[in-house]
Amino acid sequence: MDNNFENVDQNKKQEQLDEYRVVNAGNPMTTNASRKVSDDERILTAGKRGPGLLEDVYYFEKMTSFVREEIPERKVHARGYGAYGEFECYQSMKQYTKAGFLQEAGKKTPLIVRFSTVQGSKGSKDTARDLRCLGVKFYTEEGNYDMTMISFPVLINQDAMKFPDVMHAYQPEPRTGMPQASGAHDTFWDYVANNPEALHMTLWVMSDRGIIRSYRMMESWSVNTYLFVNDQGVATFVRFVWKPVLGSHSLLMDEAQKIGGIDPDYHRRDLREAIDRGAFAEYELGVQLIPMEDEFKYDFDILDSTKFWPEELIPVQIIGKMTLNRNVDNEFAELEQVAFNPANVVPGIDFSNDPVLQGRLIAYRSAQYHRLGSKNYEDLPVNRPVCPFHNNQRKGYMRYRIDVDETSYHRNSLENNTPYTTPPEQEGYEHYPMKVEGRVTRERSEKFDDYFTQPRIFWNSLTPIEKQHMIEALSYQIGSCRSKSVRQQSADILVNVDKELANIVADNVGVERPNGTHVPVSTRYPSLSQASTPKYAYSLKVGVLIGDGFNANEVRATLNTLQQYGVFVEIVSEKLGTVTGSDGTVMEVTNTFLTTSPYLLDALYVVGGESDNEMKFMQDIMEFVRVAYTHYKPIGIAASGRSYLQTTDRNNLDGVVFAENNPNFANEFVNAIAHQRFWDRT
């Protein structure tokens, strides 16, 4: 490692940021030039009732600052949130890469992440059915490494040239500016029907993975193909995947739509509250590796970003863990101004000929120049590397770095030809000398043209309930299109994936059943389904529906067990304040039936009790239970809560746990919470 680079531990970035953190509380108000302000409420006027004066320079500073506070939002990924954390390497990867942060087990590297949706504006909702992205900025000793991921293993376009087209089609229609944060409109489905490479990722958006339960439960893939290069100059194709320790979990479509209105910040709030409570978000980093000599081994092109690498054929090797353990102090300064660029790599990580990746390497820097207003955006505190950086780049808007050198060019004699270049053998970055040959062309490998085999495999790999959810999503989105021609074309392209699927959707959206049938593929990969994902009760949110006069011993024992398993508990009652048990035990109410919703809770513990308005109290509890029951959520019924559950002979009560005459109730309820959904419930 170059002697200019200090070792980086998990605190190094925070120590750097501390230089820029400012506490305003407790200090006198001043102008930006540090002149103390005597009045911050009234403009300067000519007399008590006279006109304002142009000499009110403080008002001018305050107001002009306010109207210029916002910057252009991201063209895509506008709505997002994130946190700081660290990455710990599990095992040395020096056999494959010389990247410093992957050289030894136990090595920790500070980082920041930003999650985001794609289609909606900054003010849209978190729970939109959408592609989601995860940007990870590693602050390594060798410079910043930006790992950019998405929540599916496939992208919607095979070539960077088509990205503006698909985004123009996906985002709100230009005539109306609607719909916001939704692909349920004509231009998007017209694009999908006429650009068949888009169908594969669209099906992933229509799957349960398109409406994640939490950023903490979001799996994500690099999609693009990169290279690992070791210190012998040997390259290996690599794709990355983050696997959430809590498993990959989703909302139901009805829940996602309701939550979008009840709490548009649902995913932001979930991440921030979990970190505040010490339930740090954790993700294990996996790599899929293909030797260079196996580039053409598979029946898909490994450079095609619309094709996944099946884990069953190309195993995922887990090599480390990311832990998000610190919330940001200022959303704008740290998350709005953080800037990612897949071109930011370190020695040992390089680029393949993936045509989407090749285009992305150019696009991101241009986008950041436009959005952040200056080429100097990388010197903002959140973007600044922890290791020193030296070059001959100068000037530009908002340059506050003061370079004191006489020269700003290479080569020179006045500064002994410094800053100097570093040979590859001394850790200078060198691109892998990949062999390139052929004529200049806009053609692609014939394997790129196989548009339907992998979508068919994805469909085959889903469970019956996952297929049902996809059919509902497709029927809703395509059914929202006003053009019958677009609806028909959309049904027609679906027949290539599955005949029955296409027929059901066609019937639902009022068009003719399509001719033809699906491609003759029976392959399925269990890794593509969420059915086998890990399940835990930890950090899920349980609403305790309770009034006065509750059985304190039973409730206390249940809550103690929930807390032992790290379950988040919300005490919900008719009004804020406290509720009192039969033995005088007092419990603080954290939410009312008005300030929370059954859609925001993962499970219910129904205790009941006494209230000032018994009728309203009972109606509220029964509505919470109805919603939870119809959305297949776990429900625990206290001995005093049986009357709030209305049952018939058609209710099998699957996932409902009763406390009455059940000494193991608390543990059974925790197990039910961990199970999360009871799809066999009637």
Task: Write the SSE topology.
Layout: H1 12-18, H2 57-67, E1 80-89, E2 108-117, E3 132-140, E4 143-150, H3 163-170, H4 186-194, H5 199-206, E5 220-221, E6 226-229, E7 235-244, H6 253-262, H7 266-276, E8 281-291, E9 317-326, H8 331-336, E10 349-351, H9 355-372, H10 453-461, H11 464-479, H12 484-494, H13 499-509, E11 541-546, H14 552-564, E12 568-573, E13 577-580, E14 586-589, E15 591-592, E16 603-608, H15 614-630, E17 635-637, E18 656-658, H16 665-675
Parallel strand pairs: 11-12, 11-16, 12-15, 16-17, 17-18
Antiparallel strand pairs: 1-2, 1-9, 2-3, 3-4, 5-7, 6-7, 6-10, 7-8, 8-9, 13-14
Radius of gyration over alpha carbons? 28 Å
> What is the mean pLDDT?
95
How is the biggest beta sheet arranged?
10 strands, antiparallel
User: How much β-strand is present in the residues?
Assistant: 15-25%
Instruction: Report low-confidence residues grouped into runs of 5 or more.
Output: none
User: What's the count of strands?
Assistant: 18
Q: Tell me the structural class.
A: alpha/beta
Helical segment tally?
16
What is the distance, rounded to the nearest whole angstrom, between the alpha carbons of the first and last residues?
Answer: 63 Å
| Morphology | globular
Proportion of helical residues: 25-40%
What can you tell me about this protein's structure?
The strands form 3 sheets. Strands 1, 2, 3, 4, 5, 6, 7, 8, 9 and 10 form a 10-stranded antiparallel beta sheet that branches. α14 links the parallel β11 and β12. 26% of the residues lie in helices and 16% in strands. α4 (186-194) packs across α12 and α5 runs parallel beside α10. The protein is globular. The chain is built from 16 helices and 18 strands. It starts with 11 loop residues before the first helix and ends in a 7-residue tail after the last helix.
